[in-house]
Structure formats: structure tokens, C-alpha cells
Design a protein that fits this description.
By secondary structure, this protein is an alpha/beta fold. The protein contains 12 helices and 13 strands. A 5-stranded mixed β-barrel has the order 8-11-9-10-12. The chain has a two-stranded antiparallel sheet with strand order 2-3. β9 and β10 form a beta hairpin. The C terminus is likely disordered.
Length: 342
């Protein structure tokens, strides 16, 4: 008997980005929600960076009308790059160039926003008969985590499709697609036997919620072609995966690491705060301010005069830090260079 053929390597990623972003109006009236900044990068850049870090070098973005800003962000900005190069500002120049260098990036328009399943179906001609990853922009996975790489390994081992699962509190199951699972014999990996889109708490098959990372077999396209509108009148990816799960070809990777949700305003703000605190260039100063702010909430309202005083103190501290950093450089400029002894 001949050995089974190895599963094809996954190279392509699909990033659906055609949603209207109504939960963030009016900010998203003219700006795609995927371009809202998370500290100093748009949310969608974190997603593409994650795909590239996992070895996916071909990224298709499924966008819609009024999403041109996404295409521009992942393209070169020649005038801006020339201006930064002329100033010798290499740090900002690299930051501007990085998005275009992450992967081979393509764009296609969904047309009508008919749901996640329809957005994935729009990628069929680009993906062809190869397995591919799907990454949703509302879920940001911390760069220190290796969830996507783990999912690709599971796909290599079992073939079929792989979904990311996260255990959520019972009161949150109605916000997600939920999976019925059984052990696979491998730690952290389960077989998915059924999927239910946003079930009521009493109808949920488990507390394992599907989060926004998938590695899909191309067989999903045929299922999506015959899948009618489901919950909310949209073509749901969960409905197609349900059929594949019934055939025994879907596995789940259980994730318990650092995940940031940007799906609504409160979660978005929490994400910005968490990532800012983790930044070595921003974290110390921002965390110190945050502690003061939280303490002021516990002690009662801070008057505008007290807030201005605290800001002046922080400004003096930053100024002293800059002076201390610059002082050795100034001394070096003042002192003549020492000639080596003859």
C-alpha cells in the first residue's frame, strides 16, 4: 500500500474586511473600522502581521465599497517615503514601508455584505483547490502567541478543517458560534462534531466558542455554494462548517492565551490600553499615568486644577529624563577628543 500523500502546505490567508462597522459610527462613516488605530497601527495590520509570522505569504483581503484606505495602507506611499528619507527619519520610514512588505497582498470586493460565509466564498477563484486560513479582524491574537502556527500543524496532521476554540462564560455563549466536541487523543486538540451559530444559553452544546481563526479545506467552497441564508439573513460560515463537522473532518484547537477583542467600543478601548501598557516605548509612562487615574477614580473626582498640576509634574519628569539623556552627548561635544598617547 502506498503511503498517504502529505497535505498541501497552507500559504494563503483570507481576511474578510467588508463589514459596515455600524457599532463604531460615526467614526466609521468614512473610515473603515479595520483602519481604526490600535495604539499606532490599524487593527488590520496586526492581523496581517500574524499571518506573515505563521508563514502565510499570500493574503487576500475581501473588502467592500469605501474601503480604499485599506488598499492604500498596504501599498507604497512614494511621496511620504521620499519626504522621510530626505529627513533621514529611518524609524518612521521603516514603519511606513513595513505594511507593503509583509506579504503578497491582494484585494477583491464582496459587493453586497451577505455574511462571513459569502465573504469566504468570494475568495474561491483566488484560493483554488488549496487549503487556506481565514483571519477575522475583530480578534487580535497577541504576537507572543502561536495559535495560527499550531492550527497549521493540526491541519498538516489531520487534514480537513481546523477552528480555534476558546472557553467562555455561560452568559457569553450567545455571542459566538459554539462547538460540540469530543476528545481527539491529543492535548489541546478536539474533534468538532457539531456547530451552532449564536445559541441561547440553554441550547449551547458546550462553552467552547469559535473565535476568529480558521484553517479551511477547499471542500468548504462547495458547501458554501449550496448554503442558504441563515441567522440574520446572511450566509454563515458556521452553517457550512456544521456540515463538514458532521462528516468528521473538522478539528478544534483550544486556545487559552492572550486575545484582544475589538468588536465593540468597550472591548476596543480595553485592547488599546492593554497593548499600550505592553509597549516598551509607551508602557512605563502610560502605566504610571493609568495608575494615577485609577487612584483618582477611587478617591473621587479630580479637579481640573489638580489634573493640570499632575500633568505639569509628569512633564517635568519627562524633561529631566531628556536632559539626563542629552547631557553626556553635550559633554562629548564640548570636550575635545583625546589623542592617543605617542
Amino acid at each position: 500500500m502506498s503511503a498517504p500523500r502529505p497535505a498541501p502546505r497552507v500559504r494563503k490567508a483570507v481576511v474578510p474586511a467588508a463589514g459596515l462597522g455600524t457599532r463604531f459610527l460615526p467614526a466609521t462613516k468614512a473610515t473603515p473600522k479595520e483602519m481604526l488605530p490600535v495604539v499606532d497601527k490599524p487593527a488590520i495590520q496586526y492581523v496581517v502581521e500574524e499571518a506573515a509570522a505563521a508563514g502565510l505569504d499570500d493574503v487576500l483581503m475581501v473588502t467592500g465599497r469605501h474601503k480604499r484606505a485599506i488598499e492604500d495602507h498596504f501599498d507604497h506611499a512614494f511621496e511620504l517615503e521620499q519626504a522621510l528619507a530626505a529627513k533621514g527619519d529611518t524609524v518612521r520610514l521603516d514603519a511606513v514601508r513595513d505594511p507593503a512588505r509583509l506579504a503578497d497582498i491582494h484585494h477583491i470586493r464582496q459587493g453586497d455584505p451577505l455574511g462571513l460565509g459569502h465573504a469566504v466564498l468570494c475568495a474561491r477563484n483566488h484560493v483554488g483547490d488549496q487549503p487556506f486560513a481565514v483571519l477575522l479582524g475583530d480578534d487580535l491574537i497577541d504576537p507572543r502567541e502561536t495559535l495560527l502556527s499550531r492550527m497549521l500543524e493540526v491541519r498538516d496532521r489531520y487534514a480537513g478543517s481546523v477552528v480555534a476554540l476558546m472557553e467562555v462564560p455561560p452568559e457569553q455563549v450567545h455571542l459566538y458560534g459554539c462547538a460540540a466536541v469530543e476528545p481527539s487523543g491529543e492535548d489541546g486538540v478536539v474533534r468538532v462534531t457539531d456547530l451552532v451559530e449564536k445559541p441561547a444559553r440553554e441550547d449551547a452544546p458546550s462553552r467552547y466558542a469559535v473565535i476568529g481563526r480558521y484553517v479551511l479545506d477547499p471542500a468548504v467552497f462547495d458547501v458554501l455554494e449550496r448554503t442558504g441564508p441563515g441567522r440574520g439573513g446572511e450566509i454563515q460560515l458556521t452553517d457550512a462548517l456544521q456540515e463538514l463537522a458532521a462528516a468528521g473532518t473538522v478539528h478544534g484547537v483550544v486556545f487559552s492565551g492572550r486575545r484582544y477583542d475589538t468588536g465593540d467600543k468597550a472591548d476596543y478601548l480595553r485592547t488599546v490600553v492593554r497593548l499600550a501598557c505592553d509597549r516598551p516605548d509607551l508602557g512605563p509612562e502610560f502605566t504610571a499615568w493609568l495608575k494615577e487615574f485609577v487612584a483618582s477614580l477611587e478617591d473621587g473626582d479630580v479637579t481640573p486644577e489638580e489634573e493640570r498640576k499632575q500633568e505639569r509634574e509628569r512633564g517635568r519628569g519627562r524633561g529631566r529624563g531628556r536632559e539626563q539623556k542629552q547631557e553626556p552627548e553635550k559633554r562629548q561635544e564640548r570636550e575635545p577628543a583625546q589623542r592617543p598617547a605617542a
